Each structure stands twice: as structure tokens, then as C-alpha cells.
Amino acid sequence: MNSKWQHFYQKTYQERLALIAEAADLTAKEVNQLATQNSPANNQLIENFVSDYPLPSGVATNLVINGKTYLVPMVTEEPSVIAAASNGSQMLAVNGISARVISRLIDGQIILKGANFDQLETFVTANRQQLFEVANQSHPSVLKHGGGAQRVAIRKLSTQFTSIDLSVDPGEAMGANLVNTMLEAVSGWLKDQLAVNVTMAILTNFAADSLVTVSGLVSFEQLAKGSLSGKAVAQRIADASQVAQLDPRRATTHNKGIMNGIDAAAVAFGNDWRAIESAVHAYAARSGQYRGLSQWQVSDRGLAGKLTLPIPIGFVGGATSVFPLAKINQRIAKLTSAGEEMQLLAAIGLAQNLAALKALVTEGIQRGHMSLQLKSLAMANGATESELPQVVAELKKVAHASAGDVKQILKQLRR
Ligand code: MEV
Question: Which long-range contacts (CB under 8 A, 24 or more apart) does 12-18 make?
């Protein structure tokens, strides 16, 4: 390896930047852009830090959950997401969304190789309380907040491998560090007691014990579009929901639409969206077939929707405590607990899904989003903020606007 990259992480920020600029042949303007978006806190947070990477942050309006109205902070680069979230929330606001946390535990596993399963099972059953004590003592602060180890189970994975599954109440934290510390302590204790061979000890992102459920009802009047009656649109949305149960290809896109809302808000609150993503998609495939997470049905009173999914997040600790913007966003949403945040994330997922399905089964997704998409096409091809309105107006006249059209329009505008 080229020696200049060795111990890169030990170099100062300026040294790292100079090396990257030289290797990538960056212009002075580009280097300046990296260097001016350089917050000291982020430099401490990750290794080999180069620059902050700002994404647009906005708020969706109109979300009503359990009788409380929320502003939902969302961080997203996708132009239509916040508009659609607000629109879906509004349709659901007349009757409001009902939300409930089903469970809020974080699970982890200790994988053992070559253990005698029966002996291990007997030992774990007989020493359950001591196992909990070892876990809790490794992280005593969790007990102050009423959390701690709650459940242990043992599963045979094969003739060779066994999993000991520990479930922990993380209080208001996400609990990843907490459960990993506990699992390592319990592993050490098991090795002392039984001389077992531990392959690994780690939380599981399966998160089936972090479930939240939301439901809502949209009146037919809210759904009418053009020549289609509200009832007809409701039936089409119910059909779309059914297709997502039948076909994994459609289910993946259906769920991506739900995650457009959930991820954007999860990022705004400083949460680990990869953990949410992996949990959600594993849950969607729990029957052995990947299916849509939400379901919509026509009833006498309107279109009824429900969504149940795992949302493993924390309200304190990790990035939620490091990023000032995450704290401000919690205040904008007036959130008071992790459970309330789980409800809000699931609800915005339901609203996002409703707006996407309504657009898809009526005028199609492109029409409503056209202005926003043309705006981002114009920006991507060099239009300045003040040029945007004129460029977008011109692009609207073109059948299939492309980068070439933007360049042409800009050329004429700048003459
Ligand atoms: C686009 O980001 C999301 C949608 O494709 C979701 C869906 O098809 O349900 C519109």
C-alpha cells in the first residue's frame, strides 16, 4: 500500500484534506467546500473525517395520532417525500391515527459451538436469576431507569450451534451498547461456569420485540380524484394493498414507500436507520414470503389502513444526544419518549404509503411530482436558485425533459 495512506487516521484534518485533494485532483473551490463544512464535533465522531454532508431537512404537517397533532421533522433528498407525507397525513387526520406500542425490548444472542444442548438448557433454566444479575451488573445504570434483562431462551440452531437469546428492556435508549455489554458479560460468566465455546455475542437486528401498530380510516370524500369516485379510489388502493401481499416484487416497492417516511423522520431524530431497515424487511418476510407491511381494506365508513412493524429506536443516547439538530427535531415534534417516537414513525409510514398508493392508482406517480422533479433536474444541471422558476416553467413545456433541455434553456436565459 502507498505509504502516504498509512496511519491516515492519525493525521490532522488539514493533512488528510491535502492528501485527498492531491489524490483526487480537487480544485481549490472543491477543497474549500469540504473545508468550510467541517464541524469539530463530527471530526470527533467518526474516523478519517473529511466533511459534513448536509441533507435537506423539512417538516411534514397534519399528522394526528391518538388525538395529538404533530409536526414531523424529515431529512430526505427525495423531492416528493415531505409533500406526500403531509398529504397522506391530512387524509388520515379527519378520523386520526390510532397507535400503540406492542412491545419495546431489545434482543441479543450468544452463539455457542459444540455445547451440550440439554446440559445448557438445564443450566440456563436453573440459573436464570443469576444470569439476569450478571447481565444487569455489567450495566447497572439501566436498573435506575427501570430497565434490565427480562427474558432468556435457548434455541438449537443445528447439531453444532446453539443460541442463547436474551431480551432486555432498554428504557429510553436504543439499547445496542447496553445489550452488547450485557451479552459479553454473560458470555464470560458462561465460559467460567461451563467452559463453553462462544462464537459471538451480539444484539439481533431482528427486533421482533420492538413492535408498534397504527391504524387509520380515510373517508371516501377524501379520496375522490378527477372522474373517479372516492369509493372507486378506495377499492383501487385496497387492490394495490392486496397485490403487495401476493407479489414480493410489488411488496418491495410498496414497503420502500413506507420507509420513505420512516427513514426520513428516523434520520431527523438521530436514529440508526440501518437497524430499522433490517428489522423491517426481516419482519416483512417473517411468513417465508416477503409481503407488504401495510394493509388497506374498504369498509362501510371508508378506507381502513393498518401497519404493524418493528421500530427499534432510542430517545436518548447515541446520535440522538450528539447532534443538536436531533434534539431540536424531538422538540419540534414535541416527543416525550421512545414509545411515542415509535408511534410517530409508524404513523408517518402509514401516511406516506397512503399518499403513494392514491397517486399510483389514480393519476400515476409522475404527474403530481413533476414540478419537484423538474426543479431537481434543473439544479443538478447548474440552474441557480434565482433561475429555477424560469427554467422549471420552460421545462414544463417539454415532453420528456432532460439534462440537455436544462442546458439549452440556461444558455438562452444567460445570453
Ligand atoms: C417512491 O420513492 C416510492 C413509491 O414507489 C412507493 C410505491 O410504489 O408504493 C411511489
Answer: 13/38, 13/43, 13/49, 16/48, 16/49, 16/50, 17/50
Question: Under a CB-based contact definition with an 8 Å cutoff, are residues 222 and 87 in contact?
Answer: no
| Ligand 1 midpoint to CA 359 (Å) | 9
Identify whether residues 239 and 333 lie together within a single domain.
yes
**Dist. CA 56 → ligand 1 center (Å):** 20
Per residue of the chain (415 residues), what is the pLDDT tens digit? 568 899 999 999 999 999 999 999 999 999 999 999 999 899 999 999 999 999 999 999 999 999 999 999 999 999 999 999 999 999 999 999 999 999 999 999 999 999 999 999 999 999 999 999 999 999 888 777 778 999 999 999 999 999 999 999 999 999 999 999 999 999 999 999 999 999 999 999 999 999 999 999 999 999 999 999 999 999 999 999 999 999 999 999 999 999 999 999 999 999 999 999 999 999 999 999 999 999 999 999 999 999 999 999 999 988 888 899 999 999 999 999 999 999 999 999 999 999 999 999 998 877 767 777 888 899 999 999 999 999 999 998 998 899 999 999 999 999 8
Residue closest via CA to ligand 1's atom 1 equals 257
270 and 346 assigned to the same domain = yes
Mark whether 400 is an active-site residue.
no
Domain identity same for 251 and 158: no
Please state the atom number of ligand 1 nearest to the C-alpha of residue 240. 9
Any atom of ligand 1 within 6 Å of the Cβ of 301? no
State the pTM of this model: 0.92
For residues 247 and 388, state if they share a domain.
no
Q: Give the distance (Å) from ligand 1 centre to CA of residue 230.
A: 21
Query: What is the SS3 assignment for 9?
Result: helix
| CB contact at 8 A, 176 and 134 | no
Atom of ligand 1 nearest to the CA of 353: 9
Domain presence at residue 51: no
Q: Which atom of ligand 1 is nearest to the CA of 250?
A: 8
Q: 113 and 249 share a domain? A: no
Give the number of domains in the chain: 4
Considering the candidates 272, 341, 394, 405, report the single residue annotated as catalytic.
Answer: 272
Collapsing DSSP to helix, strand or coil, 212 comes out as strand
Domain span at 16: 3-45
- Let me know: does 387 contact 410? Beta carbons within 8 Å: yes
372 lines ligand 1 (CB under 6 A): no
